[in-house]
Amino acid sequence: MPLSYIVAAGLALFVWQVPGMRVAAASVKGLMIAFQLLYIIFGAILLLNTLRYSGALAVIRSGFTSISPDRRVQVILIAWLFGAFIEGAAGFGTPAAVTVPLMVGLGFPAMAAVVSGMIIQSTPVSFGAVGTPILVGVNKGLSGHATAQEKIAEMGFDQFDALLPFIGFKVALVHALVGAFIPLLLVVFMTRFFGKNRSFKEGLAIAPFALFASVSLTVPYVLVAKLLGPEFPSLLGALIGMAIVVPVAKKGWLLPKGEPWDFPPRSDWEREWVGSLEMGADESKREQTHQISPFTAWLPYLLVALLLVLTRLDALPFAAWLKAIEIKWSAIFGTTIDAALQPLYLPGTVFVLVSLMAVGLHRMVGETIRSAWVDSLKTTAKASVALVFTVPMVQVFLNSDGGVAGYDKMPIVLADGIASLAGGAYPLFAPLVGGFGAFVAGSNTISNMMFSLFQFEVGIRIGVDATWMVALQAVGGAAGNVICVHNVVAALAVVGLTGREGDVIRKTLLVFAYYALTAGVIGFVVIKLGLLAPG
Fold first, then answer.
1. Phi and psi torsions of 328, nearest 5°
2. Is 327 helix (H, G, I), strand (E, B) or coil?
3. Could you tell me which residues are beta bridge partners of residue 31?
4. N or C: which end of the chain has fewer CB within 10 A?
5. Residue 427's closest CA among 364, 483, 475, 489?
6. In 336-408, where do the E strands start and end?
7. What are the b/e assignments for 235-253, b being 16+ CB within 10 Å?
8. Which residues contact 334 (CB under 8 A, 6 or more apart)?
9. CA-based torsion, 362, 368, 370, 376: positive or negative
10. CA distances from 347 to 49, 388, 430, 445 (A)
11. Which residues 6+ apart lie within 8 Å of 10 measured at CB?
12. How far apart are CA 188 and CA 514, in angstroms?
């Protein structure tokens, strides 16, 4: 990422011949946006570590074990439903950090847990960290660019913020269609690659339950996207999905008859399947001083959902109050570039507040509180190394107009080239571009920030609905998390399987190909039919 920043800045300065002050201003704006992302990451990780050290995470884990002994059911409940909930609440690769050790603790081979944890980082990702990929990624990618603003106004959007829920609803629709088969793929991959019989058939046997679990999440997910906006589809969709699916799993409905499916005996596991994380090792540092009830364990996450909803509803005054506190830098270094942040309105503030509330709710002692904060700061510091270069690089990329060379900004130059090459067939490939951005940058948010304007401009040039192009970008950027090197490395490190990145990506690449290509076909069809056009 430092090299990427140097290349982008070098192109802006010496090829586009953009004034040095403009490059510096774009870089400063990037640093301010990076701070917002790091604050969200810190808050999400702090809440996770607070629950880990309080013992609440262990209670949540034990709750899953009592529902069904069938590993196929467990992987759907933990990876698909609980993983989607964690993605909606925290994002930025956290589902793997939570669900992978959870599955290992239940007796899954470490490699099976990692592959499962990666596969689900697709459908819920566009609305991860309470909508950050849309509200920050797409927003920062499109806002402030005159041509895009003019086109958006022509579409009937008086305020730019009204565009984001419109795009988010389209993103949710495509994800719901493509993601309908993710739980089934999740189970089939597990039985094929990690089962005793290496059988697709054993995974397909649970198809009715897998499809039911899919619909239980994706239907409320789409409805929430339509009614409440981009913050809540993954968060509330997963919560509603768990409330529906868990009782069905307990009753054994929609499940095949016969013995519950399990992995082969541990003695028969391949050496490559096993990491250094032992069962329950993720709780080894915890100093539990009392018993926590399941409701109390889940209460912090429920409070996060409640506070986020209350502070995002326009009918209530809380959003206006929080947005009133703003740090703004206009005309940075005398350029036309502005930057602003609203610290109290950021989801990170809700995460930190609920983490402090959880200390009292779970009666945590001093050492566990300190450990949660120290671990969270360390994790955030690691993420900062990439983000403090990545986001400024993206901003230089987006603000590369005004150069002596007379070139348009970099995304528009790219759009011209792609439009002339692919023409009307380009929507088929739009998700692949988003996926490539996430693969390289390690984030759907950064991919959207980098390529939303590019995708929008391609849509304008080939004469199609540009909002659909941005939606396909967001879907592809989410799917790219399945093969994102950053996420794979993090998931493997959690269970002590470092150095096996290639083994994971060779499997998850198949899921990415399915997701991006299917989304491209759906996008191509709906664009040709003119569905959900602005106005």
1. -130, 140
2. strand
3. none
4. C
5. 475
6. 339-341
7. bbbbbbbbebbbebbeeee
8. 21
9. negative
10. 17, 20, 29, 15
11. none
12. 14
In this prediction, residues 488-492 reach a mean pLDDT of: 80
Helix (H, G, I), strand (E, B) or coil at 243: helix
Quote the pLDDT of residue 277: 55
In the chain, what's the furthest Cα-to-Cα distance? 73
**359 is written with which tokens?**
């200390």
Angle, vertex CA 207, rays to CA 202 and CA 211, nearest 5: 150
Alpha carbon of residue 122 to chain centroid: 7
Distance CA 233, CA 219 (A): 10
Helix (H, G, I), strand (E, B) or coil at 351: helix
Distance CA 115, CA 97 (A): 13
Cβ neighbours of 295 (radius 10 Å): 9
> How far out from the chain centre does Cα 422 lie?
29
Residue 284 has what pLDDT? Answer: 38
Instruction: Name the H helices within 120-266.
Output: 128-132, 139-142, 146-154, 160-178, 182-194, 200-204, 207-227, 233-251
What band does 285 get if pLDDT is binned at 50, 70 and 90?
very low
Q: Which residues contact 28 (CB under 8 A, 6 or more apart)?
A: 329, 332, 333, 339, 392
Q: Which residue has the tokens 């402090």?
A: 356
First to last CA, the chain: 40
Q: Render pLDDT for 90-113 as a digit per residue (tens, 0 to 9).
A: 777 778 777 887 788 788 999 999
pTM: 0.82
Distances (CA, A) of 190 to 76, 84, 125, 252, 310: 11, 18, 21, 20, 39
Q: Look-up: residue for tokens 């510091």?
A: 381
Distance of CA 363 to the CA centre of its chain: 31
**123 burial class (0-12, 13-18, 19+ CB within 10 angstroms)?**
buried
Residue 309 pLDDT more than 80? no
| Cα 486 to Cα 93, 136, 304, 516, distances in angstroms | 8, 20, 26, 19
Residue found by looking up tokens 């011949």 in the block: 17
For residue 402, the Cα-to-chain-centroid distance in whole angstroms is 34
